[in-house]
Protein backbone atom coordinates (compact mmCIF):
# COMPACT_ATOMS: atom_id res chain seq x y z
CA UNK A 1 0.00 0.00 0.00
CA UNK A 2 1.32 3.44 -0.91
CA UNK A 3 1.90 5.74 2.04
CA UNK A 4 2.39 8.77 -0.21
CA UNK A 5 -0.13 11.51 0.40
CA UNK A 6 -1.80 12.85 -2.75
CA UNK A 7 -0.59 16.45 -3.16
CA UNK A 8 -3.12 18.74 -4.78
CA UNK A 9 -1.21 20.90 -7.23
CA UNK A 10 -2.48 24.38 -7.97
CA UNK A 11 -2.97 25.10 -11.66
CA UNK A 12 -4.23 28.10 -13.60
CA UNK A 13 -7.57 26.23 -13.78
CA UNK A 14 -7.64 26.00 -9.95
CA UNK A 15 -7.31 29.79 -9.73
CA UNK A 16 -10.20 30.31 -12.14
CA UNK A 17 -12.34 27.87 -10.11
CA UNK A 18 -11.39 29.73 -6.91
CA UNK A 19 -12.61 33.00 -8.42
CA UNK A 20 -15.87 31.36 -9.48
CA UNK A 21 -16.39 30.00 -5.95
CA UNK A 22 -15.44 33.31 -4.34
CA UNK A 23 -12.41 31.70 -2.66
CA UNK A 24 -9.52 34.18 -2.29
CA UNK A 25 -6.07 33.42 -3.74
CA UNK A 26 -2.96 33.88 -1.54
CA UNK A 27 0.26 34.69 -3.38
CA UNK A 28 3.73 35.60 -2.05
CA UNK A 29 7.09 36.11 -3.68
CA UNK A 30 9.97 33.63 -3.36
CA UNK A 31 13.50 33.70 -4.70
CA UNK A 32 15.27 30.77 -3.01
CA UNK A 33 14.84 27.07 -2.18
CA UNK A 34 14.58 27.26 1.63
CA UNK A 35 11.90 29.96 1.67
CA UNK A 36 10.00 28.26 -1.17
CA UNK A 37 9.89 25.01 0.89
CA UNK A 38 8.47 26.86 3.92
CA UNK A 39 5.87 28.87 1.98
CA UNK A 40 4.77 25.86 -0.07
CA UNK A 41 4.47 23.55 2.95
CA UNK A 42 2.45 26.26 4.72
CA UNK A 43 -0.08 26.05 1.87
CA UNK A 44 0.44 29.18 -0.21
CA UNK A 45 -1.48 29.02 -3.53
CA UNK A 46 0.92 30.88 -5.82
CA UNK A 47 4.63 31.68 -5.55
CA UNK A 48 5.86 34.57 -7.66
CA UNK A 49 9.53 34.64 -8.54
CA UNK A 50 9.27 38.41 -8.81
CA UNK A 51 11.78 40.71 -10.40
CA UNK A 52 11.62 42.37 -6.96
CA UNK A 53 14.57 39.97 -6.47
CA UNK A 54 16.51 42.85 -8.04
CA UNK A 55 15.66 44.96 -4.94
CA UNK A 56 15.44 42.52 -2.05
CA UNK A 57 18.05 39.94 -3.10
CA UNK A 58 20.56 42.02 -5.07
CA UNK A 59 20.12 45.44 -3.42
CA UNK A 60 19.39 47.40 -6.61
CA UNK A 61 17.26 50.52 -6.36
CA UNK A 62 14.92 49.37 -9.16
CA UNK A 63 13.82 46.12 -10.84
CA UNK A 64 15.51 47.12 -14.11
CA UNK A 65 19.00 45.60 -13.72
CA UNK A 66 18.03 41.95 -13.10
CA UNK A 67 18.75 39.69 -16.10
CA UNK A 68 16.88 36.77 -17.64
CA UNK A 69 19.58 34.32 -16.49
CA UNK A 70 19.43 35.69 -12.93
CA UNK A 71 15.62 35.28 -12.91
CA UNK A 72 16.06 31.69 -14.13
CA UNK A 73 18.58 30.98 -11.34
CA UNK A 74 16.06 32.17 -8.72
CA UNK A 75 13.20 30.29 -10.42
CA UNK A 76 15.17 27.01 -10.50
CA UNK A 77 15.84 27.31 -6.76
CA UNK A 78 12.15 27.99 -6.02
CA UNK A 79 10.85 25.17 -8.25
CA UNK A 80 13.07 22.66 -6.39
CA UNK A 81 11.27 23.55 -3.15
CA UNK A 82 7.68 23.38 -4.40
CA UNK A 83 5.20 20.46 -4.38
CA UNK A 84 1.88 22.26 -4.39
CA UNK A 85 1.97 25.95 -5.38
CA UNK A 86 1.78 27.39 -8.88
CA UNK A 87 5.16 29.00 -9.68
CA UNK A 88 5.01 32.18 -11.79
CA UNK A 89 8.19 33.91 -12.99
CA UNK A 90 8.53 37.58 -13.94
CA UNK A 91 9.88 38.30 -17.40
CA UNK A 92 12.59 40.86 -16.55
CA UNK A 93 12.93 44.32 -18.07
CA UNK A 94 14.31 44.14 -21.61
CA UNK A 95 13.33 40.50 -22.20
CA UNK A 96 9.94 41.17 -23.88
CA UNK A 97 9.13 44.86 -24.39
CA UNK A 98 8.45 45.89 -27.99
CA UNK A 99 9.17 42.49 -29.52
CA UNK A 100 6.74 39.56 -29.33
CA UNK A 101 9.28 37.11 -30.81
CA UNK A 102 11.76 38.02 -28.08
CA UNK A 103 8.95 37.72 -25.50
CA UNK A 104 8.21 34.17 -26.67
CA UNK A 105 11.90 33.20 -26.70
CA UNK A 106 12.42 34.58 -23.17
CA UNK A 107 9.31 32.74 -21.91
CA UNK A 108 10.39 29.44 -23.49
CA UNK A 109 13.86 29.83 -21.91
CA UNK A 110 12.29 30.39 -18.47
CA UNK A 111 9.93 27.39 -18.81
CA UNK A 112 12.61 25.03 -20.20
CA UNK A 113 15.43 25.94 -17.83
CA UNK A 114 13.51 26.49 -14.58
CA UNK A 115 10.55 24.11 -14.68
CA UNK A 116 8.21 26.95 -13.59
CA UNK A 117 4.53 26.90 -14.54
CA UNK A 118 3.83 30.40 -15.92
CA UNK A 119 5.34 33.80 -16.69
CA UNK A 120 4.28 37.33 -15.75
CA UNK A 121 4.79 40.55 -17.68
CA UNK A 122 3.92 44.20 -17.10
CA UNK A 123 1.79 46.46 -19.28
CA UNK A 124 -1.50 46.80 -21.13
CA UNK A 125 -2.49 46.81 -24.81
CA UNK A 126 1.14 47.40 -25.83
CA UNK A 127 2.05 43.85 -24.72
CA UNK A 128 -1.06 42.09 -26.08
CA UNK A 129 0.75 40.70 -29.15
CA UNK A 130 3.37 39.18 -26.87
CA UNK A 131 0.69 37.63 -24.64
CA UNK A 132 -1.03 36.07 -27.68
CA UNK A 133 2.27 34.71 -28.98
CA UNK A 134 3.40 33.29 -25.60
CA UNK A 135 0.04 31.68 -24.81
CA UNK A 136 -0.14 30.21 -28.34
CA UNK A 137 2.98 28.22 -27.37
CA UNK A 138 1.08 26.79 -24.38
CA UNK A 139 2.70 29.02 -21.77
CA UNK A 140 0.30 30.61 -19.25
CA UNK A 141 0.73 34.38 -18.81
CA UNK A 142 -0.14 36.56 -15.81
CA UNK A 143 -0.56 40.29 -16.54
CA UNK A 144 0.38 43.23 -14.31
CA UNK A 145 -1.34 46.66 -14.39
CA UNK A 146 -1.36 49.83 -12.28
CA UNK A 147 2.01 50.57 -10.77
CA UNK A 148 4.39 48.70 -13.06
CA UNK A 149 7.88 49.06 -11.51
CA UNK A 150 9.71 48.31 -14.79
CA UNK A 151 8.35 51.68 -16.05
CA UNK A 152 9.47 53.65 -13.00
CA UNK A 153 11.44 56.14 -15.09
CA UNK A 154 8.31 56.90 -17.14
CA UNK A 155 6.16 57.48 -14.00
CA UNK A 156 8.97 59.09 -11.98
CA UNK A 157 7.36 57.96 -8.70
CA UNK A 158 6.00 54.89 -6.87
CA UNK A 159 2.74 56.63 -5.84
CA UNK A 160 -0.80 55.30 -6.43
CA UNK A 161 -1.71 54.93 -10.13
CA UNK A 162 -4.97 55.52 -12.06
CA UNK A 163 -6.40 58.10 -9.67
CA UNK A 164 -7.61 60.30 -12.53
CA UNK A 165 -10.41 59.35 -14.91
CA UNK A 166 -8.25 59.09 -18.03
CA UNK A 167 -5.76 56.68 -16.49
CA UNK A 168 -8.56 54.69 -14.82
CA UNK A 169 -10.35 54.33 -18.19
CA UNK A 170 -7.12 53.16 -19.84
CA UNK A 171 -6.55 50.62 -17.04
CA UNK A 172 -10.08 49.17 -17.45
CA UNK A 173 -9.55 48.90 -21.21
CA UNK A 174 -6.13 47.29 -20.68
CA UNK A 175 -7.57 44.74 -18.24
CA UNK A 176 -10.15 43.66 -20.83
CA UNK A 177 -7.41 43.48 -23.47
CA UNK A 178 -5.20 41.31 -21.27
CA UNK A 179 -8.11 38.94 -20.65
CA UNK A 180 -9.03 38.70 -24.36
CA UNK A 181 -5.35 38.21 -25.28
CA UNK A 182 -5.20 35.11 -23.08
CA UNK A 183 -3.92 36.07 -19.59
CA UNK A 184 -5.04 33.65 -16.85
CA UNK A 185 -4.82 36.31 -14.10
CA UNK A 186 -3.81 39.95 -13.60
CA UNK A 187 -1.86 41.63 -10.79
CA UNK A 188 -3.30 45.05 -9.91
CA UNK A 189 -0.69 47.11 -8.09
CA UNK A 190 -1.31 50.28 -6.07
CA UNK A 191 -4.57 51.53 -7.57
CA UNK A 192 -7.73 52.86 -5.84
CA UNK A 193 -9.74 50.06 -4.20
CA UNK A 194 -12.98 51.08 -5.99
CA UNK A 195 -11.29 50.83 -9.40
CA UNK A 196 -9.75 47.42 -8.54
CA UNK A 197 -13.20 46.20 -7.41
CA UNK A 198 -14.80 47.35 -10.66
CA UNK A 199 -12.10 45.71 -12.80
CA UNK A 200 -12.29 42.45 -10.81
CA UNK A 201 -16.05 42.29 -11.21
CA UNK A 202 -15.84 42.89 -14.95
CA UNK A 203 -13.42 40.01 -15.63
CA UNK A 204 -13.77 36.22 -15.60
CA UNK A 205 -10.07 35.75 -14.84
CA UNK A 206 -8.84 36.42 -11.28
CA UNK A 207 -7.20 39.65 -10.18
CA UNK A 208 -4.46 39.60 -7.54
CA UNK A 209 -4.06 42.88 -5.68
CA UNK A 210 -1.15 44.59 -3.95
CA UNK A 211 -2.27 47.89 -2.51
CA UNK A 212 -5.56 47.49 -4.43
CA UNK A 213 -8.02 46.92 -1.57
CA UNK A 214 -10.01 43.85 -0.59
CA UNK A 215 -12.50 43.48 -3.47
CA UNK A 216 -10.05 41.64 -5.71
CA UNK A 217 -9.74 37.87 -6.13
CA UNK A 218 -6.46 37.45 -4.27
CA UNK A 219 -3.58 39.27 -2.59
CA UNK A 220 0.18 39.28 -3.12
CA UNK A 221 2.96 40.68 -0.94
CA UNK A 222 6.73 40.64 -1.25
CA UNK A 223 7.81 38.01 1.30
CA UNK A 224 10.68 40.12 2.67
CA UNK A 225 8.19 42.92 3.41
CA UNK A 226 5.48 40.75 4.97
CA UNK A 227 8.06 39.07 7.24
CA UNK A 228 9.40 42.45 8.36
CA UNK A 229 12.93 41.82 7.10
CA UNK A 230 12.99 45.34 5.78
CA UNK A 231 12.18 48.07 8.30
CA UNK A 232 12.44 51.09 5.98
CA UNK A 233 9.74 50.11 3.44
CA UNK A 234 6.37 50.98 5.01
CA UNK A 235 3.65 51.65 2.43
CA UNK A 236 0.08 51.88 3.76
CA UNK A 237 -0.94 48.57 2.14
CA UNK A 238 1.76 46.52 3.89
CA UNK A 239 0.79 44.37 6.88
CA UNK A 240 3.90 42.95 8.58
CA UNK A 241 3.20 39.47 10.01
CA UNK A 242 6.59 39.24 11.75
CA UNK A 243 9.31 41.65 12.80
CA UNK A 244 12.23 39.55 11.54
CA UNK A 245 14.60 42.50 11.23
CA UNK A 246 14.46 43.01 15.00
CA UNK A 247 14.55 39.30 15.82
CA UNK A 248 17.58 38.67 13.59
CA UNK A 249 19.40 41.72 14.95
CA UNK A 250 18.89 40.46 18.53
CA UNK A 251 20.02 36.94 17.55
CA UNK A 252 23.20 38.26 15.90
CA UNK A 253 24.01 40.44 18.93
CA UNK A 254 23.51 37.50 21.28
CA UNK A 255 25.65 35.20 19.11
CA UNK A 256 28.48 37.77 18.91
CA UNK A 257 28.36 38.23 22.69
CA UNK A 258 28.50 34.44 23.26
CA UNK A 259 31.44 34.01 20.86
CA UNK A 260 33.43 36.85 22.41
CA UNK A 261 32.72 35.71 25.99
CA UNK A 262 33.68 32.10 24.97
CA UNK A 263 30.22 30.89 26.03
CA UNK A 264 29.72 29.44 22.52
CA UNK A 265 30.47 26.64 21.79
CA UNK A 266 30.11 24.88 25.16
CA UNK A 267 31.33 21.36 25.96
CA UNK A 268 28.18 19.72 24.52
CA UNK A 269 28.48 21.66 21.26
CA UNK A 270 31.80 20.14 20.22
CA UNK A 271 33.34 16.75 19.26
O1 LIG B 1 8.22 41.59 -8.58
C1 LIG B 1 7.30 41.49 -7.73
O2 LIG B 1 7.52 41.14 -6.57
C2 LIG B 1 5.95 41.80 -8.17
C3 LIG B 1 4.88 41.87 -7.11
C4 LIG B 1 5.00 43.09 -6.31
C5 LIG B 1 3.54 41.71 -7.69
O3 LIG B 1 5.72 42.02 -9.31
Describe the overall structure.
It is a single chain. Helix content is 41%, strand content 13%. The chain has 271 residues and is an alpha/beta fold. The protein has eleven helices and eight strands. The protein has an eight-stranded parallel β-barrel, surrounded by seven helices. It folds into two domains: 12-240, Phosphoenolpyruvate-binding domains (TIM Barrel); 243-271, no CATH class. It is globular. α2 links the parallel β1 and β2. α2 packs across α4 and α4 (68-80) packs parallel to α5. The model has no long low-confidence stretch (mean pLDDT 97). Bound molecules: 3-methyl-2-oxobutanoic acid. 3-methyl-2-oxobutanoic acid binds next to β6.
The overall strand count is: 8
Largest sheet: 8 strands, parallel, barrel
What is the CATH topology assignment of the largest domain?
Answer: TIM Barrel
Work out the oligomeric state of the chains in this entry. Answer: single chain
Count the DSSP helices. Answer: 11
The CATH class designation of the largest domain is: Alpha Beta
Strand content: 5-15%
The averaged pLDDT comes out at: 97
Structural class: alpha/beta
Topology:
Layout: H1 12-21, E1 25-29, H2 33-41, E2 46-49, H3 53-56, H4 68-80, E3 86-90, H5 100-114, E4 118-120, H6 128-136, E5 141-146, H7 152-155, H8 165-181, E6 185-189, H9 193-202, E7 207-210, E8 218-221, H10 223-226, H11 244-260
Parallel strand pairs: 1-2, 1-8, 2-3, 3-4, 4-5, 5-6, 6-7, 7-8
Residues 29, 48, 50-52, 90, 187, 189, 210, 220, 222 line the site of 3-methyl-2-oxobutanoic acid.
Amino acid sequence: MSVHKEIKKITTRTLLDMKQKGEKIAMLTAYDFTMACILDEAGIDVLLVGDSASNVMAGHETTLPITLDQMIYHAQSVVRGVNHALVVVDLPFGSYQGNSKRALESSIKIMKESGAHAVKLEGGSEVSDSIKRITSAGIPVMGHLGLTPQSIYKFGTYTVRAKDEEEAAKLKQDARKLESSGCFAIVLEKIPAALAAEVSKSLTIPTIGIGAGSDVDGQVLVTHDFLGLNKEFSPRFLRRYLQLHELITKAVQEYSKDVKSKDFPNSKEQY
